[in-house]
Write a structure and sequence with these properties.
Length: about 775
């Protein structure tokens, strides 16, 4: 299963990689034939830079002087073409290529003269059938001809395959014309060299190397015989607007006479066979080099591989063509153009993902990607009051605050790379050493923070707590998270450090899945609501209960609240749990009030929720959904009030809840944080004395006086007093004498399910009689 998961993960990563996206785009382009533009640009640029002027053995004789056809041009007169053919053949031309004439009819005397001239010079004359370029079909179609070919006269066809804008690409050695195989012009000078089925033009030839003369100048005797001796002479029309005109790589956008391309094809044919390799080899080579680059660790070596891959695509096809190998370059060129920005975008996103947006320092994602060597311990630091520090600084100094902390850590850690996890958490690596040596080192680091930070004129005092992970067999990200969790734990306990040891490692799968397990437990009933009864001294009966959450896991049994409530608060699950408790408590009230009205249920309200803007609105929704008629049956116990981030919002929320009819209780009163100031600050209805004062009142006169004073103060303010932690009858009676209103503890009853509480409440009715009164 592990190997299958790894393979599946690797496959998913590849499917999201720039290389796969690039190949998918290229293949789509190949099958839709939409990559010709890139092929065209490449060869046009390549041959523009590689083409040269050379001495050639060809001459073009223009029948129209490059102008539109007119009655005065030689192209319109077969008779004058006959005279022209005799003159050029008589000057010693090796081969004369004459275009099929523009005919006027079978009985035209000029056509007869031309046929006679062709017969006289049949040994070295070839009649050429021109073609109309069909760039939409990527080929040329031979033109229809009404001129009757004389017996014994050879003919050839100029029919080039073209790209999407009419540039010549290649031609077949022979083409079917009027149901007869006719050789191409390019194959007529074949000297026994096997060119294969296709012939490619020799684009290294600059076409202005071939002289072009006016047919009229030849007829007027203005051209010397040496101009044609032992030459290939093309008698043709040269108007670039003709349907037969072709584009020529390296020549720019201007179309050229097909005869010039024919001559380039003759040169290409004489150079030997061209092996067509297609587009696959180059693309496979490019993809292989990219894969090699991605697996190369060194940045400089990676860059070299990528540059070589790009150069291979840009240079190899051109050089290969000069040596007789034709590679289709369009798909690979598109691959370069697509992969480069995709890879750059991926690198940019990766850089953003691996960098803290505030400080610009590398984050733990970057640390995990780089890996953690087994010879190092992972150390995390949690900076106390970091959020308060940032709140006191202008926003533009937040990054500088993190950088100063990182520099101070780096100074003590030997200039190692420090990774910023935001919110006052930093991680780095330390060479493995004994725990005693490491603790001594961390004490020195902590001493560095004894002096305040000075940021933009702001002086900030702080302290730090460390988390240690030495589990060398764990994955990097697990070690980093373990160190961070340990640093948080050290801060919560006020300790220098916490180590994520073997026992914690064994528990980590459970802790890491705790949040999901809480949600599941709420759904399936593993998490349930217990009620701990409260005894009313004034009416001698059980008149209320505190709602307490309990968790019975099928695998681990009973899980103590302390093991999951704190993590639920940190993970933002405490709101869902609290609203769940409130809803369940309200739905239990009807049954309890039916037995002992009025009945109170107390619900704990975390300080993380007290200042939440949506608290009152959500509570109102629950009241409406459950149909609660009297909100005074619910008491909210406010705990850890001192840690509220927004005290003003908290006061507004508490006042709103009280206006709705809910009762408010100050929990853990007397612990040092919930002090006398809160009696004036919070609009409460009761105070709840902490168990640490209650358990010793029968033995410590001082504690008894404190409790008596608090009870008197609360009564003078119109508030009730609840004493918790009562575990024996002596303590209970002592509180009765001191005037306490309500009592809660194991002596009254342990947390229990609703049916048990209903039975206990029923027994407590009727004064001193009943099983519940036996304890009190």
């Amino acid at each position: 299963m592990g190997n299958e998961a790894t393979t599946g993960g690797s496959m998913r990563a590849f499917l999201k990689s720039p290389l796969f996206v690039t190949l998918a785009i290229v293949l789509l382009g190949v099958f839709t034939q939409s990559l010709q533009f890139f092929e065209h640009v490449y060869w046009n640029v390549w041959f523009k830079n590689r083409a040269q002027i050379e001495q050639t053995d060809a001459v073009v004789v223009s029948l129209d002087n490059g102008l539109p056809l007119s009655s005065s041009s030689v192209a319109s007169s077969p008779a004058r073409q006959a005279e022209l053919l005799d003159n050029i053949a008589g000057m010693g031309a090796r081969t004369v290529f004459l275009d099929y004439p523009q005919t006027t009819g079978e009985r035209d005397l000029g056509e007869e003269a031309l046929r006679d001239a062709l017969k006289r010079n049949s040994a070295n004359t070839i009649l050429v059938r021109r073609s109309s370029v069909r760039s939409d079909l990527n080929h040329s179609e031979p033109n229809r001809a009404s001129f009757r070919l004389p017996e014994g006269v050879r003919q050839a066809v100029s029919a080039w395959n073209v790209n999407f804008i009419g540039y010549a690409v290649d031609t077949k050695r022979a083409t079917i014309v009027d149901k007869v195989w006719v050789p191409s012009v390019a194959s007529t000078q074949d000297r026994g060299v096997d060119q294969g089925d296709l012939i490619f033009p020799d684009f290294s030839l600059r076409l202005d190397s071939v002289p072009v003369v006016d047919a009229r100048a030849v007829l007027q005797g203005q051209i010397t015989a040496g101009s044609f001796r032992d030459k290939l002479v093309f008698i043709t029309m040269t108007n670039p607007q003709l349907d037969s005109a072709l584009g020529y790589f390296g020549h720019g956008a201007q179309k050229v006479p097909a005869a010039l391309v024919d001559y380039s094809g003759i040169r290409g044919a004489t150079k030997g066979e061209v092996t067509v390799l297609g587009w696959v080899p180059l693309l496979v080579a490019f993809a292989s080099m990219i894969i090699l680059g991605t697996r190369t660790r060194r940045r400089s070596a990676k860059l070299i591989v990528y540059v070589c891959a790009a150069l291979m695509v840009l240079v190899v096809p051109g050089l290969a063509r000069e040596y007789g190998y034709f590679l289709t370059v369009g798909p690979s060129l598109v691959a370069v153009l697509v992969y480069a920005p995709l890879r750059s975008s991926q690198k940019w996103r990766s850089r953003v993902q691996m960098t803290s947006s505030a400080s610009g320092l590398p984050n733990i994602t970057a640390m995990a990607a780089e890996g953690v060597d087994r010879t190092f311990d992972v150390i995390a630091v949690s900076v106390s009051q970091y959020e308060q520090m940032l709140a006191s600084l202008p926003r533009e100094l937040h990054g500088e605050c993190a950088r100063q902390i990182a520099r101070r850590i780096g100074l003590g850690a030997g200039d190692r790379e420090v990774y910023d996890n935001d919110n006052g958490h930093f991680v780095w690596l330390e060479s493995s050493k004994t725990l005693d040596d490491l603790i001594e080192h961390l004490e020195g680091l902590r001493a560095l923070f004894s002096s305040p930070l000075v940021i933009g004129g702001h002086v900030l005092d702080t302290t730090v707590h460390f988390g240690i992970d030495r589990n060398i067999d764990s994955k990097p990200i697990s070690r980093i998270q373990s160190a961070l969790a340990s640093a948080n734990e050290a801060q919560s306990k006020g300790k220098l450090y916490e180590e994520f040891g073997e026992q914690r490692l064994a528990q980590s799968p459970w802790e890491l899945s705790l949040h999901a397990r809480i949600d599941e437990g709420l759904r399936n009933g593993d998490i349930w609501l217990a009620l701990q009864p409260q005894f009313d001294f004034r009416h001698n009966r059980i008149s209320g209960a505190e709602a307490l959450i309990r968790w019975t896991d099928p695998e681990r049994g009973v899980i103590p609240p302390d093991a999951f409530i704190l993590q639920a608060e940190r993970a933002g699950r405490i709101e869902a749990i609290t609203y769940w408790v409130l809803e369940r408590s309200i739905r239990m009230l009807d049954q309890l009030n039916a037995v002992a009205a009025p009945f109170q249920i107390s619900v704990n309200l975390s300080a993380r929720m007290v200042d939440h803007p949506g608290l009152v609105h959500r509570v109102a929704d629950i009241v409406r959904e459950t149909g609660l008629k009297d909100c005074s049956n619910i008491t909210f116990e406010v705990t850890e009030t001192f840690s509220m981030a927004n005290r003003e919002q908290a006061k507004i929320n508490l006042a709103a809840l009280r206006t709705m009819g809910f009762r408010l209780s100050i929990d853990d009163f007397g612990t040092g944080q919930a002090s006398l100031a809160y009696l004036a600050e919070i609009p409460s209805d009761e105070i709840k004395l902490d168990r640490r004062f209650i358990r010793s009142i029968t033995m410590d006169h001082r504690d008894q006086l404190i409790v008596e004073s608090v009870i008197g103060l609360a009564h003078s303010l119109g508030q009730e007093v609840v004493a918790e932690g009562i575990e024996d009858i002596v303590t209970l009676e002592a509180l009765r004498k001191l005037g306490c209103d309500l009592a809660q503890g194991y002596h009254i009853g342990r947390p229990m399910k609703l049916p048990e509480l209903l039975e206990l409440v029923d027994l407590s009715q009727g004064g001193t009689a009943g099983g519940a009164r036996a304890n009190v």
